[in-house]
Amino acid sequence: xxxxxxxxxxxxxxxxxxxxxxxxxxxxxxxxxxxxxxxxxxxxxxxxxxxxxxxxxxxxxxxxxxxxxxxxxxxxxxxxxxxxxxxxxxxxxxxxxxxxxxxxxxxxxxxxxxxxxxxxxxxxxxxxxxxxxxxxxxxxxxxxxxxxxxxxxxxxxxxxxxxxxxxxxxxxxxxxxxxxxxxxxxxxxxxxxxxxxxxxxxxxxxxxxxxxxxxxxxxxxxxxxxxxxxxxxxxxxxxxxxxxxxxxxxxxxxxxxxxxxxxxxxxxxxxxxxxxxxxxxxxxxxxxxxxxxxxxxxxxxxxxxxxxxxxxxxxxxxxxxxxxxxxxxxxxxxxxxxxxxxxxxxxxxxxxxxxxxxxxxxxxxxxxxxxxxxxxxxxxxxxxxxxxxxxxxxxxxxxxxxxxxxxxxxxxxxxxxxxxxxxxxxxxxxxxxxxxxxxxxxxxxxxxxxxxxxxxxxxxxxxxxxxxxxxxxxxxxxxxxxxxxxxxxxxxxxxxxxxxxxxxxxxxxxxxxxxxxxxxxxxxxxxxxxxxxxxxxxxxxxxxxxxxxxxxxxxxxxxxxxxxxxxxxxxxxxxxxxxxxxxxxxxxxxxxxxxxxxxxxxxxxxxxxxxxxxxxxxxxxxxxxxxxxxx
Length: 631
What we know:
By secondary structure, the protein is an alpha+beta fold. The chain has helices at residues 7-15, 20-38, 63-78, 108-120, 159-173, 198-203, 208-218, 245-249, 316-330, 347-376, 379-402, 409-440, 444-469, 479-483, 485-513, 529-541, 543-562, 594-608, and strands spanning 51-57, 84-92, 95-102, 134-138, 146-151, 179-185, 190-196, 220-229, 232-240, 252-256, 259-262, 267-273, 279-284, 301-310, 340-346, 616-621. Strands 5, 6, 13, 14, 15 and 16 form a six-stranded antiparallel β-sheet that branches. A four-stranded antiparallel β-sheet has the order 2-3-1-4, covered by helices on one side. Strands 7-12 form a two-stranded antiparallel sheet. Helix 13 (444-469) runs antiparallel to helix 15. It is elongated and about 120 Å long. It starts with 6 loop residues before the first helix and ends in a 10-residue tail after the last strand.
């Protein structure tokens, strides 16, 4: 017999009594469990779409002059870079921003090198008065995964104090090695304001330009050399930075009649917050109690938001959980008791919830398949499938980890999608082993013969499914890398299911089904075959019934296709995402005052606080809110 069996039968014979087979099962399950633990969890898959912002300033130039002397010449150079797909430029007086977008899949580092080479090799063409380009790369990892909003009910705590607390808190959060960057939005920076007195300025014979020059020269620290002393080298620095308002007042701006004129003699100094250039407000909705937020005073409070982004490849849920744990530890010490902190975005938590939910659905799908096999074939046959499917999924999860994919809704959807097809190989092999054992009795030769009998069709069916799925991996554009985990994961699952069907299923089938008694000759099998014969028999015997059956199937197909043009079903690339946040953007007329925009935002806030589902809302006036995956 050994000379007549094919490759599937030979594989089954090699592993059906091998001591390695149970070790393969255990190792596969452990590797899959390890992959689930160590694989980063995110909401969206990693997509390489290099985008670079190029900033250029031209003080004193109009927007038209910036376009003619800066934007157009620079765009001509940037279009020469290989891999550039789009260029967007924004011009305003004295400023230009050009956004360079490369094709999807281009490497970020290579794109930056090409951009730097092109710009630096043309520095000699920069017109006088134009600054050198400032380059800042942007990627999907710049999307903040965690936002924390600081606010207070105390009238003595303003945005100035909140910002200082936020900066200290960011310093502690940044100590986590997986935190890439943070952004503080809102509040006022510390500033020493110099209010000149024209009368005293004229009396001392000084001018504002002298004051600007004196302040610039007084706030400089320069190394001035060194000298040896006592077998040591002493470094000497000249000048120093201004540390307090008193030092600013001591700055000498002029000399009159041999006496120095200090800045405090001609101006009033104020140490405090800068003039507001933007506002951030925090408001509570009717459902604030669901997040544990309480406030004794109604209304909107001034706030400051901290946006935290993670490094590429880091686990979003781990980074967010670590940052929140650090925040909780700092309450009452670095964070004053009269300052409230609300988590207004936590993509790490939502990524964990979604991945856990999809893993749960994957488990439900697996159990459903096993129960169906138990009802159709029997409990022992279901045991074989109950081992084959988890082993296949475990190996697929390992491949996803080794391939660099994260656990997100697309990769997990690929696994759930593949359960329905990867179980086919195990079912075909187990059912045939079950049939051979029933007819000829249990034995190694019977199991090998059963596997070999269906081996070639199983191999052909598996490769047919892979051939149908794999072309999706070569889709270009933005959706290509986004959806690529589906064909890669499902194809890997199908190939693993084929190997498991030839290696594990015969071994376990022989162990579990070995006690099956063969049926007496001529005795019909008690399974679904009789029911199937009753259904298919009339179709085979009557041409009219066959035509009606085909017409019925065709009619159902046309009805299903008609649902799309009739708009009875919604068709979109991705499922609806149940986000806990939304953004409303107010586009005011050009030239609108900051306070006017803030007043309109407050009116909108007054409406939002009446919506029953709203827990909290933030108003960002004159500044951008933390951007999300959509921009």
